[in-house]
Amino acid sequence: MALGKSVRIYLKEGNVSGIKLGEVVNHTIQALSCPRNKISDLNKFFIKEINRPGVYFLIGEDDSNQSQVYIGEAENVWERLKNHDTKKDFWSEVILFSSKDENLTKSHVKYLESRLISIALNADRYKVANSNSPNLSSLPLPDQDSMEDFLLNVKLLNGTLGHKFLENPIKINETKIIDVPLTATIDSSVVISSSGGLKLELKVKGIFASAVQTDEGLVVLEQSQVSGKTKPFGYSTLREKLIQDRVIVPNTQGNFYYAKNYLFESPSAAAAVTLGYSVNGRSVWKDENGKSLNEIEQAQVINS
Question: Which of 116, 157, 217, 221 is a Cys-bridge partner for 31, taking CB atoms 3.0 to 4.6 Å apart?
């Protein structure tokens, strides 16, 4: 069983939209999150924390409103940050990481930068704005292990501060028939074999979809069917974006299907995008026994 961790967050202005200082209790790592319009305050109140070696994330959106991150390193993060303030336009927030005991060297932060870019690209949650991936700097084995431990806490603090672009995409272990026609009724017993997630199905008006409920939301599985007919509904923009991004692609029968697994924040969003109209997802997503998600959750509360 995984051990719990304690994270301490200090709100400089007493609110969640201002400067935040994050620490993992009993560790040397420190994180500073700051909106762009307040970066001058960093050098007033956190001089020691920002004038030392570290890694940083510039976070914002690209021209198509897609979440984007630039990952960098510097021997003096403050000096580098001042340069980015005048030369990079897209970002609205910076998160920087350093060590309280000042034991990070240039080689350490270059190693961290390379690993963080690789992790963010693999996770594929945000667009990575770096034009290239730096080579992994050579470190003695003890230093490599120390930096890998530092990375775990970078991921922990980054997620605590509201960003999951370093979190691995949700892995669904699947055993399924590869060549099943998209119009066929798929036996759920051979579609999904997952650990830790609740298996769910949607069967409405000839559309069949499979999903797994996770801590982050509902993952609709690849090859699930999508209706080609739509009505005006609240998630139409999201549906169009998924079609544009080739997450949802057309088949030969006039409908669509998911080309890869996709995480939705809510069951209703997953159901609406799949069916093409607004619907209560907690009613239409059901387990293999025909119980709706709403019924399952109510039973869990009653029996807890």
Answer: 157
